[in-house]
Design brief:
Structural class: alpha/beta
CATH topology: Rossmann fold
Distance between the termini: 55 Å
Oligomer: single chain
Radius of gyration: 19 Å
Number of strands: 11
CATH superfamily: Vaccinia Virus protein VP39
Strand content: 15-25%
Helix content: 25-40%
Number of helices: 9
Largest sheet: 7 strands, mixed
Length: about 270
């Protein structure tokens, strides 16, 4: 069994290198981040993304068939935020404000820094560099009403106590501050799918789609919890901003909308 796993890893590396060579050339698609044409985007390697359960639930939130750009290494969820932020002129709103960015994506982080925010805090539970602070989203070490913008792009699905995370985001946001809360969800479930017996990497990968995910969100349950934390939801629909052809060309999920959550000027909490 161990030898088979080694062989499988070697084969995956070989396939990845072959993809690098093939996908770099061509003009059928284009990376929105680096603006370079390419034959196609690499697929996400987690095998469970093709399992029948996830297919039946019609998960919205990523495009595993158009995951990575071979030029700049941006992934589909990062490219989609670039598109949303361009179209909605959100970059301008990042100037001279305080921003908290969880699990910061490289290209997105560089773009945000260029806007010259007054304060830009990159955070992660497991930092990958010295510029990123080690912060648990359920216990943010900042005072109330500090940040104008909080970005948590596909983060909540990793957090066991996501309600506490929502409360912390609300607490550290200034009144009228905004949070970007992208996360995969399904419209087909009334409640979140989360069982205590799904407690190994293999089981989480099989049932939730990724080994470090801890649930499948129900759209209605998730949105209700965001509003229950005190936020005002303003969903920016992908269909209102981009055509299906444009989403396909740039390799993003045409069904994923931008989840913007605002802290009201006068909190009721």
């Amino acid at each position: 069994m161990q030898n088979m796993n080694v062989i499988k890893k070697i084969n995956n590396r070989i396939l990845t290198k072959i993809e690098c060579l093939i996908y770099r050339f061509g003009k059928t698609k284009k990376c929105y981040v680096c603006q370079r044409p390419l034959w196609g985007f690499t697929k996400y390697r987690e095998e469970s993304t093709t399992l029948p359960l996830l297919s039946m639930l019609d998960i919205i939130g990523s495009d595993p068939n158009n995951f990575g750009c071979m030029h700049c290494n941006s992934h589909d969820r990062e490219r989609h935020l670039f598109m949303f932020f361009d179209r909605l002129n959100i970059w301008e709103k990042m100037k001279n404000v305080a921003i908290l960015h969880f699990a910061p994506e490289k290209n997105l982080s560089e773009k945000i820094s260029k806007q010259e925010p007054l304060q830009y805090v990159c955070a992660d539970l497991y930092p990958k560099d010295q510029l990123t602070q080690k912060i648990d989203l359920t216990r943010v070490p900042y005072s109330n009403d500090v940040f104008d913008i909080v970005i948590a792009n596909h983060v909540l699905e990793h957090i066991p106590n996501y309600l506490e995370a929502l409360n912390e985001i609300y607490r550290v946001l200034k009144p009228n501050g905004a949070a970007v809360l992208q996360t995969p969800y399904t419209k087909l479930l009334e409640h979140n799918f989360e069982l205590s017996c799904i407690n190994t990497s293999a089981l989480r990968s099989y049932y939730y789609g990724q080994s470090d995910h801890v649930r499948i969100f129900s759209r209605s349950h998730l949105f209700g919890d965001i509003e229950g934390a005190g936020f005002v939801l303003k969903i920016k629909k992908n269909d209102d901003l981009f055509s299906e052809e444009l989403a396909r060309y740039y390799g993003v999920n045409k069904n994923e909308d931008l989840i913007l959550a605002y802290k009201p000027q006068e909190s009721t909490r």
